[in-house]
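Reagents: none. Just compute today. Outer membrane protein beta-barrel domain-containing protein.
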Amino acid sequence: MKKVLLLFAFILTTVFAAQAQTRFGVKVGANYSGFEGDDADGADRRFGFHAGVTANFPVVEDFFSIKPEILYSQKGAKLEDIDEVKYRLSYIDVPVLAQINAGPLYFEAGPQVSFRVQDKLEIDDSSIDVDSDGLKRTAIGYAAGIGLASTPLGLSIGVRYNGDFSNLYDDDDAADFRNGVFMLTLGYMFPSR
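Predicted 3D structure written out:
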């Protein structure tokens, strides 16, 4: 499934790369992440950040475009039932979003594949790397958001929610945790040539 989604993203990128108005850019912002799922009642949200690159491939000029991204994203949650325990999970997120523009306002939604690159468990301010054989390396999810873009300047600000369809753990008997992240993003699109 992961290979199929990556192949699909590559094909879309290649097909739309010939478009004259293709633009590339950078993004950075804050994450407010937590766990969703049946067992997530005792989990509080935590702050992190995200940063990465984006592209915008117009399909219908000034109205509809495809927007793939590659983002480093910090996720996780705080569990405070016994001690203060923080899950610090880092991912490479690869969303492929459909974007609809309505003047300076835009709406975006689409699938997302996330690849876990680091995980730490912090207990009472002591951080340890976790041997996380039980955690899934990849997650399939979705992203949806809204924002404002200043096309001539290339600046944008947006809010987005992304969530996972799949459980964080491989074991079916493990806790039912899925990542859920609110994002506030600042972006800059480089001028097209």
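The chain has one domain: 2-189.
Action item: order primers for follow-up constructs.
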